[in-house]
Amino acid sequence: MLKKELTFALNYALNKGFQIHPDAFKILENIDVKKLEKIIKEIVREKTRQKLFLINQDDLETYLGIKEDLNLKSEHRILSDPTSKITTGEGVKGYNALFSSRFNKLKRIIFDRPESRMLKSIASVKSVKTEDDMYVCGLVTTRNTERNIVKLVLEDPSGTFEGIVFDSELQKVAGSLLSDQFVMARISMGKNSGFIIKDLILPDIPEQAINRSETETFAVFLSDLHIGSKYFMEKEFSEFVSWISSPDPTARKVRFVLIGGDVVDGVGIYPNQDKELVFQTLEEQLRRLEELLDKIPKHVKIFIMPGNHDPGRRALPQPAIPKKYNNGLWERENVFMVGNPTMISLNGVKVLMFHGQSIDDIVKTTPGLSYDNPANVMKHLLKARHLSPIYGSQTPIAPEMEDLMVIDEIPDIFHVGHVHRAQLDMYKGILLINSGSWQRQTPFQASVGMTPNPGIALMVNLKTFQVFHENYNSNLDNILQS
Ligand code: D5M
Ligand code: FE
Ligand code: ZN
Predict the structure, then answer these.
(1) What is the structure's pLDDT at 47?
(2) How do residues 87-144 score in pLDDT, each as one tens digit?
(3) Ligand 1 closest atom vs CA 437
(4) pLDDT > 90: what percent of the chain?
(5) What pLDDT, in 10s, does the model give residues 186-223?
(6) Residue 36 to residue 33: CA distance in whole angstroms
(7) Distances 197 to 137, 172, 173, 190, 390 between C-alpha atoms, Å
(8) Ligand 1 centre from 357 Cα, in Å?
(9) Coil, strand or helix: which one is 40?
(10) How close is the Cα of 212 to the center of ligand 3, in Å?
(11) What are phi and psi of 50, to 5 degrees?
(12) Residue 62 has pLDDT above 90, yes or no
């Protein structure tokens, strides 16, 4: 049944001798009913003056100011993607290469610090006898807190170094170091020939100017759809994708959609998962994704990255979701299948996308960090210049020859998902986005006290960096955290 305001508008035009094109009708259907009467009267008046008695899509788009803006740029470049680089070295030899790559890349990054000019190898500081301060760097192999001292062990290619932190402020920094993270230390020899750590310097991010798009193009940030799960909010997600082609002025500027992993719920990811699935195969789950994404206009570029629920491989870095599970997505001209992590330039704005698996291990081992505040964990990763430092815990890391999880290049936007909490923050000029989820709280999440805020779509104006959001959750307590 037509809404009465729409019927009124149609009758008004027909009675004045107008025809309405079916495409124009589709637009009228989506217009706010309160505005319909005014719009139709004005268009009828204008077209009567022109003696043109057909109302078409173009008339409405011009009137509403929703004509596609052909000047909006939508250029993209995939700056890094692990998919083609994944080699997988074998056994211990592979891990040696990985850690030596990590050390070398991060040492190069720390070379931008003035103190690095005084860096010495661990083997050499052990043999010098001096009372002066010295600098060493390495990966953290052990972090121990005993009574009121913190003991750290660092490793570089020349050997291992053990030092003690006495200063209470510095102990807090030492206590928040992640295992296998890279750090530079200012040290001196103690009285009993042990080493004292006097300062700890992280690679971190320098203050820098961000890149901006020339035009006010918008990018949408999504993740953790979990299609196939009983708890996937299909109705809300479908409403959101339809919104992208609505007359809303923000929607009309969307040219990019980024999906940061866990696009499907997967199969066999956790015990008895089949009981919580509405689609039992990866093919069915991905076909549903394809159908839902089909509603997005073809001039919008969609980037799809895997997470821990998606097929490919579990260990980081992950290749793109393989073609064999869904050919259609790979073949679409406006869809780009990328690996995890990836760096993409959108009109010159550099977006680092990472699903966020390592957050689990980091919140478990670091005092002061929690699932409720993923942005703080993201800051930790940027300071460490590494997306997944901890080796040998819950997050599997593959023995690649090159450590592709090092944050070599500084992004303008850092996009993470995984923890199902939509949150915004800033760090050194970088916009931090956790894109939340489109899955209701699962029984597992309820059992561990995790409260997601699903159904919130975040979007950024790539020229001004202003963030907008559309909230599709009917629960009023479900709000964006920022
Ligand atoms: O993860 C959704 C969230 O649930 C994420 O924050 C991790 C958390 N999670 C998932 N599995 C576990 C286990 N086994 N222990 C603790 N926390 C967990 P997703 O990747 O969407 O399943
Ligand atoms: Fe998830
Ligand atoms: Zn996840």
Answers:
(1) 87
(2) 865 666 678 999 999 999 999 999 988 888 999 999 999 888 888 999 999 999 999 9
(3) 21
(4) 75
(5) 999 988 778 999 999 999 999 888 999 999 999 999 99
(6) 5
(7) 12, 13, 12, 10, 22
(8) 9
(9) helix
(10) 29
(11) -80, -5
(12) no
Strands 467-471 and 430-435: what pairing? Answer: unpaired
Cα–Cα distance between 427 and 431 in angstroms, integer? 7
pTM of the model: 0.89
Which residue's CA lies nearest to atom 16 of ligand 1? 360
**Does the beta carbon of 229 lie inside 6 Å of ligand 1?**
no
Contact predicate 389/181, CB 8 Å: yes
Residue ranges in 366-412 assigned as alpha helix (H): 374-384
Ligand 2 centroid to residue 446 C-alpha, Å: 14
Query: Environment class of residue 183 by beta-carbon count within 10 Å: exposed (0-12), middle (13-18) or buried (19+)?
Result: buried
| Distance from the alpha carbon of residue 341 to the mean position of ligand 3, in angstroms | 13
Q: What residues have a C-beta under 5 A from ligand 2, the ion?
A: 224, 262
Counting atoms of ligand 1 from 1, which one is nearest the CA of 357?
20
Angle at 174 between CA 172 and CA 180, to 5 degrees: 140
Going by alpha carbons, the residue nearest to atom 1 of ligand 1 is 418
Residue 262 confidence (pLDDT) above 80: yes
Per mean pLDDT, which range of 58-67, 208-217, 435-444 is the poorest?
A: 58-67
The answer to whether 423 touches 266, Cβ cutoff 8 Å, is: no
pLDDT in tens, 308-367: 999 999 999 999 999 999 999 999 999 999 999 999 999 999 999 999 999 999 999 999
Beta bridge partners of 358: none
pLDDT at 148 over 70: yes
Which amino acid is it at 4? Answer: K
List of domains in the chain: 4-64 (1.10.8), 76-86+207-471 (3.60.21.50), 113-201 (2.40.50.140)
Instruction: Tell me the pLDDT of the chain averaged across its residues.
Output: 93
Question: Is 371 touching ligand 1 by the criterion CB < 6 Å?
Answer: yes
403-418 pLDDT tens trace: 999 999 999 999 999 9
CB neighbour list of residue 267: distance below 8 Å, 6 or more residues apart: 273, 274, 277, 280, 281, 282, 285
Of the listed ligands, the closest to the CA of 361 is 1
CA of 444 to the centre of ligand 1 (A): 8
Residue 341, preceding peptide bond in cis (omega within 30° of 0): yes
For the CA of 269, the closest atom of ligand 1 is 22
For residue 83 the two structure tokens come to 């998919």
Distance CA 214, CA 212 (A): 6
Q: Which atom of ligand 1 is nearest to the CA of 309?
A: 20
